[in-house]
């Protein structure tokens, strides 16, 4: 079984709060059977571009530090192997691409394979869902998305508004992904995807990693059953073979009951079995769907 996770904020924590204990550690990834952990370079609080660039350099240094400790950076999720742990590098908030299109290729050479167009700040490319639902991609944003697609960087629409989401679907060629998003039909929140977005994303060959943050999953008590409710709903929207995990570990302040860190992935997979998912569906959600998505880019 290959377990893949499409999002965590551990690199940011390593540089901004190095003394804090992280959810994501090599020991826990091994115990949980995680084969591929996506590590996001997260843009953080609003800051001048020079400061963001400095922050990204520090996260790249933290990544080098992990490599020296034996962590392996994959260039494609298909390199995931059961029983081993590899990392995939992503960006959350494309502020650094504001400098010009050539920067995108520089980050691709540094190993970036996925990039969320915005976090919760407006940037040179687009406007996030938390600010304006409808405004589309900026002209530069459309150019940047096409450049990302040329370089086989997965375009991540988590945090992006609906206008930007539909510009990517309608005006560009490769299917986008939402690395850490939930269903708006089950929890009314701007960060969550509407049924129409889910249907259109799945029809286009996209992918959704389910976010584990309770505030995005429910207004009530959050358990592993709550997560399976969201998977059930995504399956109803056409998500079979196109859904998986986007835990957001090390970026979320609360967790669903029993799902504290990567060690708990097997318990979540067992919950899927208990709720009637076939072994093939469990394997797909665990990681195969994310690996297959990258093959479609
Ligand atoms: Zn996020």
At the fourth level of CATH, the homologous superfamily is Metal-dependent hydrolases
Radius of gyration: 17 Å
Distinct ligands, ions and cofactors found in the model:
zinc ion
Percent of sequence in beta strands: 5-15%
Mean pLDDT: 97
Q: What is the domain total for the residues? A: 1
What is the name of the CATH class? Alpha Beta
- CATH domain topology: TIM Barrel
Short description:
The chain is 40% helix and 14% strand. It has 297 residues and is of the alpha/beta class.
Write structural notes for this entry.
This protein has one domain (3-295): Metal-dependent hydrolases (TIM Barrel), CATH 3.20.20.140. The protein is 40% helix and 14% strand. The strands form two sheets. Strands 1, 2, 3, 4, 5 and 6 form a six-stranded parallel β-sheet that branches. Strands 7-8-9 form a three-stranded parallel β-sheet. It is α/β, with parallel strands linked by helices and 297 residues long. The chain is built from eleven helices and nine strands. The chain has helices at 10-16, 26-32, 49-68, 101-109, 139-150, 162-171, 195-203, 214-217, 224-236, 265-274, 279-295, and strands at 3-5, 34-42, 72-73, 86-92, 112-116, 154-156, 177-181, 207-210, 243-245. The mean pLDDT is 97. The longest helix is centred in the N-terminal third of the chain and has 20 residues, at 49-68. Helix 1 (10-16) crosses helix 3 (49-68). The protein is globular and about 50 Å long. The chain binds zinc ion (ZN). Zinc ion binds at residues 92, 158-159, 180, 251. The site of zinc ion has 5 residues, from loops.
Draw up the topology in text.
Layout: E1 3-5, H1 10-16, H2 26-32, E2 34-42, H3 49-68, E3 72-73, E4 86-92, H4 101-109, E5 112-116, H5 139-150, E6 154-156, H6 162-171, E7 177-181, H7 195-203, E8 207-210, H8 214-217, H9 224-236, E9 243-245, H10 265-274, H11 279-295
Parallel strand pairs: 1-2, 2-4, 3-4, 4-5, 5-6, 7-8, 8-9
This protein binds zinc ion.
Zinc ion (ZN) binds next to loops.
